[in-house]
Write a structure and sequence with these properties.
about 140 residues; alpha/beta; 2 domains
């Protein structure tokens, strides 16, 4: 069963290098209508491999205490952390978003470390402020 198409804003673009024979196999499957396009084939192959190794992922996520999916950090969230005199150790598998209105000094004052397996969306100023804390 195929999953519904993903919106462009919900994806991250990556580049891969393939041998000509592998690329030819993909193009053949596309021309035969098995897949809509090269991207459809590659997404399906990746999902199959992720599912194949699901036990390893589950164990690692539990061991490393990683949050799965989307984690959004709003300015108000970080201000609450700062008021409590606390610091965050952020670990996300998926997408971590630090809101655009979060000033760099607030991010630095409240985020002790950040590790994102997937994608981090943050302003250039916040990324610079947290550069030494990114893993």
């Amino acid at each position: 069963m195929r999953q519904a198409a993903t919106k462009a804003g919900d994806t991250e673009k990556i580049t891969i290098n393939l041998g000509y024979v592998d690329l030819g196999h993909i193009d053949l499957l596309v021309s035969e209508g098995v897949y809509a396009n090269r991207s459809d084939f590659i997404r399906t192959a990746i999902r199959n491999q992720v599912e194949r190794h699901a036990d390893v992922t589950r164990q690692s996520v539990a061991r490393k205490r990683v949050e799965l999916g989307l984690r959004h950090f709003r300015r108000a969230d970080l201000e609450t952390v700062q008021a409590a005199g606390e610091m965050l150790d952020i670990r996300v598998l998926g997408l971590a978003v630090i809101a655009a209105d979060v000033p760099a000094d607030l991010a630095r004052a409240t985020i002790a470390s950040i590790e994102v397996l997937g994608s981090l969306q943050a302003s250039p100023a916040v990324r610079a402020a947290l550069a030494d804390r990114l893993r």
